[in-house]
Amino acid sequence: MSTVPTIDLNNGTAIPQLGFGVYQVPPKDTKEATLTALEVGYRHIDTAEMYGNEKGVGEAVRESGLDRGDVFVTSKLNNGFHAHDDALTAFDGTLEALGFDYVDLFLIHWPLPGIEVDFVETWRALEEIYRDGRARAIGVSNFQANHLRRLIQETEVVPAVNQIEVHPYLTNDDVRAVNAEHGVATEAWSPIAQGLVLDDPVVTGIANAHERTPAQVVLRWHVQRGDIVFPKSVTRSRVEENFALFDFELSDSDMGLITALDKDHRTGPDPDTFNWIP
Prior knowledge:
Layout: E1 6-8, E2 14-16, E3 20-21, H1 27-40, E4 44-46, H2 54-63, E5 72-77, H3 84-98, E6 105-108, H4 119-131, E7 138-141, H5 145-154, E8 161-165, H6 173-181, E9 185-189, H7 201-210, H8 214-225, E10 228-229, H9 236-243, H10 252-259
Parallel strand pairs: 3-4, 4-5, 5-6, 6-7, 7-8, 8-9, 9-10
Antiparallel strand pairs: 1-2
Helix pairs in contact: 1-2, 1-9, 2-3, 3-4, 7-8
């Protein structure tokens, strides 16, 4: 079994660089999908209140036979709970759904720049959760450079991570650079652009040269850039394929060719304008 490297977050918490994402995994299928990932060797699971499947993640961790401390679990605050007290109540709901005493990482899911409740107020609630020890680390998701800079200027705890859309068609290097400047780890969601990049001739050519799949090559590109990734699949063979990233290496030329595919193409919403509340 491959050994997944860990990255030390800015508060000293270690996070496995490769995880398993449960975005769009139906709640009824989440426990089995997560159990499969844990059997394959994943020790990092990424969920969110918005996904509606935290309960299945918690059940899988308990039924896996693994110690709770051996599995890094992330969840994220739903968009309708940005007010201070609402955020605290929603976090209590996350712990209840998971059946845990703590989460390893809790994030503001979206900055929602157009709503009345400011994300700085939301962050102060997460700081309380962090100080109480109920989240080992706290961070943000989908924060642009200006959002992140303002948050750091106006609050006390620097986010441990910023989870943003990153893939070869959206390298998002400006935000990644601001993350690095402030010691904030970059987590990459949509790491294969929902499959869009897998048929790209550059990617398939590199994959053929390494006798690997296009998905493995793109995920390896992320790993070598220092991104934290958590691909999603409910198919065991794909779950195993996505885990096999640490016994080969891309050359500098390979890395440059993939990075050059950037076309500023998003597969998800624009964080500067996205203000959806479920």
